[in-house]
Design goal:
With 325 residues, the chain is an alpha/beta fold. The protein is 39% helix and 13% strand. Helix 9 links the parallel strand 10 and strand 11. The protein starts with 6 loop residues before the first helix and ends in a 6-residue tail after the last helix.
Length: 325
């Protein structure tokens, strides 16, 4: 057991939103005892040590992922609190807002604490709220990098991800522009979003790829092949919508088996789903996002939940989507 009770563990243990975790616990889930450091951290790109439970900033925008958040000061409090709780990996994109999300992060956190990794994305344009149109033209992507650097007040982006492959532009041309930006020192590492294994291998012929960001959670495992590839290649896998998303895809459904299992053990279904993800693979880097301080505390407490192999297997089966695996 690690006797060094970190400030992060202490805060998680005291969090009122995590009280249910501490009092129940999936048949003696231990919330106040951290897993080993090797399990908590991941070496992204071989040189960026990040905490495996990060924060997705997309929800800190207006409705339709458009404009500024309705409560800008609260949004900044959420970002600062995430860092206080130990988050050192924040995911954003120039399309979130558009632009406002990157500006908000700089407004809240600059000058950035040492070791904070901000990952951003480019290549998705926003004609209007709820609308997303890929643009992989090399000239446009080069501008994306420069503008993100300026908005985030960075000299170099630690992880820049191609938000979507533009089917109208050969990916070699799109990533060729990103390789030039990397060679110029503007980008440290490159990642991809919503891609197949074949597309990852195609991209790697142009530029080294260190991470993949695909939709993945306990009830949506369509990207299992990409996850397996990342594990084999020691690449980071960043699941977006790690707790299901909203509407019919939300895991917060009183009628589903996972919700019932979570209640039976006195934890939230979100914490259950995040704990499952973290123990699914050592390359898994979930980025749950929220605009709520209470939900942020709840999400971060999930990193302390340790499932026994039999418990994990049972939960895995309850969430297994039919016809995918």
């Amino acid at each position: 057991m690690d006797n060094d009770l970190t400030r992060r563990t202490f805060l998680a243990a005291l969090s009122t939103s995590a009280a249910g975790v501490l009092t129940g616990g999936l048949s003696k889930l231990v919330a106040a005892v951290s897993p080993s450091k090797s399990e908590e951290k991941f070496l992204l790109g071989g040189d960026l040590l990040v905490d495996r439970l990060g924060f997705g900033a997309m929800r800190l925008t207006g409705e339709g992922i458009w404009g500024w958040p309705p409560d800008r000061e609260n949004a900044k409090k959420v970002l600062r609190r995430a860092v206080e709780l130990g988050v050192n990996f924040i995911d954003t994109a120039d399309a979130y807002g558009p632009e406002t999300n990157e500006l908000l992060i700089a407004e809240a956190l600059y000058p950035y604490p040492k070791g904070l990794v901000i990952a951003t994305k480019g290549g998705n344009t926003r004609p209007g709220p709820g609308q997303w149109v890929p643009d992989g033209q090399p000239e446009y992507l080069a501008q994306c990098v420069d503008k993100s650097l300026k908005r985030l007040k960075l000299e170099r982006i630690d992880l820049w991800q191609l938000h979507r492959i533009d089917r109208k532009v050969p990916v070699e041309e799109s990533l060729g522009a990103i390789k030039k930006a990397q060679d110029a020192g503007k980008i440290r590492h490159v990642g991809l979003s919503e891609v197949t294994v074949a597309e990852i291998e195609q991209a790697k012929k142009v530029v080294p790829i260190v991470s993949i960001q695909n939709r993945y959670n306990i009830t949506d495992r369509a990207s299992e092949a990409a996850l397996n590839y990342c594990e084999k290649e020691k690449m980071g896998f960043i699941p977006w919508a790690p707790i299901g998303g909203s509407g019919t895809r939300s895991l917060r459904n009183p009628n589903n088996a996972l919700e019932a299992e979570a209640k039976r053990h006195n934890v939230s279904v979100v914490q259950l789903a995040l704990a499952w993800l973290l123990q699914k693979s050592p390359v898994m880097l979930p980025i749950p996002g929220t605009s709520s301080l209470a939900h942020l505390e709840e999400n971060m407490a999930a990193e302390k939940l340790q499932l026994r192999p039999d418990e994990w297997k049972k939960i895995d089966g309850l969430g297994r989507p039919h016809g995918i695996l």
